[in-house]
Every structure is written in C-alpha cells, then in structure tokens.
Design a protein that fits this description.
Blueprint (H helix, E strand, L loop, with lengths): L11 E4 L4 E3 L7 E6 L6 H19 L2 E7 L3 H11 L5 E3 L4 H5 L3 E6 L2 E6 L2 E5 L5 E5 L7 H9 L3
Helix pairs in contact: 1-4
C-alpha cells in the first residue's frame, strides 16, 4: 500500500502512442498520476477532459499528468484522439501497477460484487516521493482540487 512521504512504486507501461513509460521517465518533474476504471465511460471521460483543460496550468506548476487504467494501449489511443487528450494514458492490462498502488478494489455494482479500479490520484514529487493521495475521487472539480494541492507541493 502506498503512503505519503514514501517512495512511489516504479512501473513500466505502454501508452496509446506505442511508447513505454516508467516512473523514472518523470524524474525531476512533479507527476499527477491518476488511476481510472475505463476509457469512454461518462465519469472517466469527464475526468480526462478536465485534466486536459487544467494540463497547461499543471505544467506551469512543474507537473505532468499521466492516466493509468486496465484498458489496452489501442483503447487509450482511440480515447485520447476522440477527446483531444495530450497527456499519456498508460495501459496496465495485467494490473501490476494498479495493484501495487492499492487501487484494485472490490466494489458493489447493482448489488453484484466485482473488482475494479478505485478512482485515485497520486501526486509524486520530483524525487519520486508521494506527496498527496486522493482516494475515492469525485470527478466534478477534481482537476482543480489537484491544481490547488500542486501549488503547495
């Protein structure tokens, strides 16, 4: 389980544009790493688009936005193109990073138990240390909330 003040777990995942990214690729910059359940669903689309709208402001604060879900790299490519997303979306089909970051959770959907990504955002500093964790994210206003925390990190 991840904790504030601890080193962020490394990962090495493929993006929709066919490039592999690892935590080390973001060294020296703040990282807004957000985990989301699925491409092209209403909440995930709203969240991604709100991060895109705030991306330039986050960049001015020295931060890069990166999304991770269990969808395929091809799904991410289509999702990014459809919604004009300019930040990496990483595919974790084997759920390695998703599980290491502790966001693979049992949920109840229409009375049925299932496992899914618990919408979570982690802010990692330039040295790879976790500085803030948003658990059980509510999409509306979240990107602004992240931006406000970046001002303090």
């Amino acid at each position: 389980m991840i904790k504030i003040g601890k080193k962020a777990p490394s990962f090495n995942l493929m993006s929709g544009d066919g490039k592999k990214y690892g935590l080390k690729d973001f060294a020296g910059r703040k990282l807004v790493l957000y985990f989301y359940p699925r491409d092209n669903t209403p909440g995930c689309t709203q969240e991604a688009r709100s991060f895109e709208r705030k991306r330039a402001e986050m960049k001015r604060k020295g931060a890069i936005v990166v999304g991770i879900s269990p969808d395929s790299a091809d799904s991410h490519l289509n999702f990014a193109k459809k919604h004009g997303l300019k930040f990496p979306l990483l595919s974790d089909e084997k759920k390695k990073a998703i599980k290491v970051y502790g966001v693979w959770k049992e949920k109840s959907l229409y009375g049925n138990k299932c496992f899914s990504v618990d919408r979570t955002t982690v802010i990692i500093d330039e040295k790879g240390i976790i500085r803030h964790i948003f658990h059980r994210v509510k999409v509306k206003g979240h990107a602004k909330e992240v931006l406000n925390v970046l001002k303090k990190v």
